[in-house]
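Before we proceed, please read the two lines closing this message. Let me know whether the structure tokens fit the sequence:

…
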Amino acid sequence: MVNHKYAMRYSFVLYALCCVRTTHAFVRCPLTHPRKLTPTRVHLQPTKQPPLCPEESDGHKEDKKLLAGLPLPIFFSITTIYFIQGALTLSRLATTYILKDEFHLDASTLAALAGIISIPWTIKPLYGFLTDNVPLFDYRRKSYLFLASCAASAAQFSVSQATIVADVPSLIAAVTMSSLSIAITDVVADSIVVERSRSNSDDQAGNLQSLCWISSSIGAIIAAFFSGQLIEILGPRGVFEVSSFLPLGVFLSALFVDEEPVSKRKSSTIANEANDDEVTQFTLLKKALISPAIISPMLWIFLWQSTPSSDSAFFFYLTNTLFFSPDTLGKVKLVTAISGLVGILIYRQFLRAVDIKKLLKFCGFAAFPLSLSPLILISHLNQTLGIPDKLFVFGDDAVITVLAELAFLPILVLASSLCPPGIEGSLFATMMSIFNFAGVVGNEFGALLTKTIGYTGAVGESTRPLEMLIVLCSLINLIPVFFIDKLVGGGVGGSNRPKE
């Protein structure tokens, strides 16, 4: 069914955005379709960064045409970058089909490679440090956008050429390079939003961040709609040829980013203040990370996210046994995307005041029977009840996606509530990197179980190993629920906030 763990997750919570001035764009694991209640990695940028020079801030106030507190060219540039980040999920399904049908990989190998491709998203704070402190060609933002967009475009185009990417290692290298480049553009875009938000009112900052999230969501939804159709029309490699043009939109958008060259800044004072801030921030961050009040809930979040999934194996069942077409799987992703937005609205409207531990327990226990629902499809019980296979998949994924959002959003709220003043953004970004790394561990764990049980996904293979894998993963996914009381603080916002 769908990946609630890494790829195409449109999950960002506006409530958490109000708690911590950070922003979200999403990229998910490009290969799998998890049954776990673990939406994608969230990538956020530290909020405490060296401010823009006074000349830039003054320039913003002189512009008459503003939208969300920004001059129109800057606004459209930033929202375009986020839209393209969402649209670049267009090639995710194509990656899966190339590995499965062209290189004939089995289910366990496919799951293992998914974790490798996701690694660039686990070290995002490093990119933030580089863009803040290592200017390229006299710029800290625009130059990185130019280089990263060109690298992403080249990597995507190389996959479309069978003479260039002719084996699995070269494919993984190209897709990982594309993932790295997109992660860097995301960090830079986050940095620009944070810098601009600092000079705006809280309402304007919230509107800007929300519009960025919406732009990314729209791009990802459109990509989900067309991904399967394009595979059937152009083939998997043809999809990469189309998607290789998308990063060029980031390149063009960077031309409109208003950034003064580093050499023209009054850098001595700003640099000294930035260095002092970095030393102080690092000290506070180190102190926070060794605090038991933060370690305990983060341990639970890691445990929750690192549980295995049977989705790679189930993808093989859908395509090799039920013969679901790429277009059908693309439509499933579309339903998933829309359902994710519905889940966010339900949480914001009705569940923000619910105790975090109670909500996590409910989602955890409710997830258990839902994670076993593929057994209904495998046994054809749904057909006995008069429900066609495709309709069952659409409905099942819609329900589990809503529940996935309801489980994930409190995690963001919990993470934001743990951040002490002064290092909110840095600590939050660090925690989300740990979250992403746990997702990589979960992918590899699932790949190991798939290999151990012996399910390959071959045509005509017995479904008994797949049934065992689904049950085993569902049972393991239930384990973190029993540790919620010991590791997670209660309250609407969590009670684990460390003392200042």
